[in-house]
Specification:
about 375 residues; alpha+beta; 8-stranded mixed beta sheet; 6-stranded mixed beta sheet; 11 helices; about 30% strand; globular
Length: about 375
């Protein structure tokens, strides 16, 4: 089956990879599918997420985009899918029934205020759902910070700060997280998957993003109960930004702070809580979960872009807003767990000219302002 949005994309295999056919494989699709609520209709005015006026109205909304999304899922046939920007009515009336027909079960988390959130789908034939959890990040964050040794009152202040800056009251609700523990029916192996949509805020608040991800990493470690972990989502940060450095290095350090301080665009460079700078508070967290990027591990780099929104222009007249924002990260495993997770293939993004023909995303071909990304893993058991 030909799928126009996938025809120009190539599967890239890790150098030296050979398939002996003896290991369990797990594939995951990460996709921000663009909620209709983020797109103004007619004369409804501007919107915090852009207008997408370059996209013909007949291709702009979910009533025409959904069929293309389903065809992408059918073609890639992933075992697990992490989705962002899922509207409640769309999930209940369209998405969930459509995915059920393809053999997927699901869990969902909605943000309060806008009824938009996250969903994780998994193949019911391959996995059993052991447990799932969902939470608002600003509500969990204070306990994470207190466990790291921060005073209770300061931790609560940071939680309120994160809530205040991660929402647009009446438009976008505060950021949340959704996690599942899945058991592979054939082997009994358990994996934990987390789905997160980090706050955008035009990249002006990097410490806000790091506080959010710090909470997710610590909570995922506890939730997994020793299972191998996959963390996927729209991180709303490019590979040269502080959040990416924090994830890839597994810590907050002077380099992270330098990336924040060296950019005058950042509005939270000097933010303090209880007299302490944000970086000093974040350095208190000893991250127990270390993750790697599947794309970087396979290709030696991240995708050139996963998001291509409105065709804006900078001062020199160059095109901007073609960004890599989406990631699939994983925990490698260790001798203690006797289990190891290895990415062996990822789906590269389409060439730039293919998207540029339609001025951006979404379009008649591509059904969202984000591209779906895909990674396939081998789950290996250590020899006893």
């Amino acid at each position: 089956m030909s799928v126009p949005s996938l025809d120009s994309r190539k599967m890239v295999f890790k150098k030296g990879f050979t398939d002996d056919g003896n290991d369990t494989t797990i594939s995951l699709l990460q996709y921000n599918i663009l909620a209709d609520a983020a797109i103004p209709r007619g004369d409804s005015g501007t919107n915090v997420c852009g207008t997408y006026a370059f996209c013909p109205e007949m291709h702009r909304y979910m009533d025409s985009r959904f069929e293309k999304i389903i065809k992408e899922v059918e073609s890639l046939n992933p075992d697990i899918i992490t989705l962002q920007e899922i509207e409640q009515v769309f999930f209940e009336n369209t998405l969930q029934p459509g995915m059920n027909k393809l053999g997927y079960a699901s869990v969902q988390h909605l943000r309060p205020g806008d009824h938009i959130g996250l969903a994780i789908f998994y193949k019911a034939e391959k996995f059993s759902l052991l447990s799932h959890c969902q939470f608002l990040i600003h509500e969990k964050l204070p306990s994470v910070l207190q466990e790291a040794g921060l005073e209770s009152s300061v931790a609560l202040d940071i939680g309120e700060y994160v809530k205040r800056h991660s929402e647009y009251p009446g438009i976008i609700g505060p950021a949340g997280d959704l996690m599942v523990r899945l058991k592979v029916k054939a082997t009994g192996t358990v994996i934990a998957v987390a789905n997160v949509h980090v706050t955008w805020k035009e990249h002006k608040y990097p410490f806000l993003q790091i506080f959010q991800m710090s909470c997710v990493l610590e909570e995922l470690f506890k939730f997994a109960e020793g299972a191998l972990c996959i963390l996927a989502g729209d991180f709303n940060a490019t590979p040269d930004m502080p959040l990416y450095h924090m994830i890839s290095s597994g810590k907050v350090c002077e380099v992270t702070d330098h990336l924040v301080q060296s950019n005058s665009y950042h509005r939270d460079r000097d933010v303090r809580f209880g007299g302490k700078r944000a970086v000093e508070i974040l350095k208190m967290i000893d991250f127990k979960l270390k993750v790697k990027s599947s794309y970087f591990e396979v290709m030696g780099r991240e995708p050139v872009y996963t998001n291509w929104g409105d065709m804006e222009m900078d001062a020199e007249g160059d095109e901007v807003h073609k960004l890599c924002l989406d990631y699939i990260c994983y925990e490698n495993g260790d001798e203690k767990s006797k289990q190891f997770l290895y990415p062996y293939a990822v789906l590269d993004v389409p060439p730039e000219h293919v998207i540029a023909e339609h001025a951006g995303l979404p379009s008649a071909i591509f059904p969202s302002d984000h591209l779906p990304i895909y990674a396939a893993f081998k789950l290996k058991q250590a020899l006893q």
